[in-house]
Amino acid sequence: MNSGFWNKNYRRVKKWSKLFYPQRKLRYYPPKFVLRDPVFEGVYHAMNSGQQVAVIVVSISNIREFSQQFEPKQLEEYKNEIKIGFQHIFEESSYSEDLLVVHDYYNEGLTVFLKIHDEKQSVVHIENMLRILTPKLERWMYAKYPYFNQTFEIGYMFVEKNDGSTQDALYTAQQQAVAMAEKRIQSRYIETLLEMRDIIQKREITLLAQPIIDLATKQIKAWEFLTRGPKNTSLENPLQLFSLARQSNLIYDLELLVLEKAFQMIGRVGCRDDVFLNFTPITLGNKRFIPALEKLLKRYEDILPNKMIFEVTERDSIDGLTFFHDNIKELRKMGFRIAVDDTGAGYSSLHTISEILPDIIKIDRSVIQDIDTNTVKESMLKGLILIAKETGSLVVAEGIEKKEEADVLMRNQVDLAQGYFYAKPGTLEKGRVAL
């Protein structure tokens, strides 16, 4: 055999031997995805039979936000469900014959391999397909995860087989598709940033109030102020509004606006009851928060700090926030009280309770719903009440919608309650809610 044969095969063996390198050594190589046999063979045969192959990258642009709220295992399950759902949407469509495979080669999304017959106009075919399938994917994702404002962008590129291997051609096409998707994400991010800045600058938010009832006296003890975005838009929904603020890194600016609007409303209606306000640990842990709060207190002199309760929302971890604990101590020195929201909905609220020993614990709707027919939920309630006694905290139950749920809370001597059973959120006017 000649030397050319050996040189050629030596290079091939050396290239594929990387698959068997230990993980610590792989970090020195570019992050090329490794095609498994079915994928490689499908692409190889499609190209050899005269068909074009396109690589489509579906990039979930706010996957990092979910990664902060999910455990690693939950995040993998989430991504796998999206992969299954996307494949199902393809297979149920008229484009099912084009699909080679859907895979999660791209860390923050999916990679789809399509074969396209020569008689079809390639770019037009893909654009038409995406125009039809993208809304279906959006609807599927929203139905599956309605509490997250999931956004994604799509990039695609055709595989061009030149002198290199099919593997290299696929890698190049995939990287170009990723770049295209990320460019679109960057464009959308700029649009999101401008939209959110516009809302904050124009102060286009409204505060509603929902009463919190003393279960022993049946009297209004406090109010929770709830934020709504611009009226008659999708951002009127607070989940959408605050998700957009997170994506544009303007959550602190939005929540500071909410705080000022709350001070204005308290002064306007002469409210002397306690007021609850939701704040993320991101805001409460910002080094600018205390100075900004002090300025607002000077401007709104009728605000009584001992009547204000800052609710720490459960969705964000307090770990790694340098100024969070110092700010909490400072707030307490100023007379403000601290509550932990959404207790029972996840693990992080229990961790937060142990870290800050809140004045008030708010029990999530997921624990309260149908508690009258679920003995396990009542046991959970009793456990949370014991935790509250240990920390010296009052207990507020959220989301009460029927008398039977309220009766269970009374039986277990819960301090305070709120929910549609008592009143829906509305405009606060001189100690009452106008719906």
From TrEMBL:
Residues 189-435 form the EAL domain. Pfam families: EAL. InterPro entries: Cyclic-di-GMP_PDE-like, EAL_dom, EAL_sf. SUPFAM superfamilies: EAL domain-like (SSF141868). GO terms for molecular function: cyclic-guanylate-specific phosphodiesterase activity. SMART domains: EAL (SM00052). PANTHER family: CYCLIC DI-GMP PHOSPHODIESTERASE PDEF (PTHR33121), SIGNALING PROTEIN (PTHR33121:SF76). This is EAL domain-containing protein. It comes from Metabacillus litoralis.
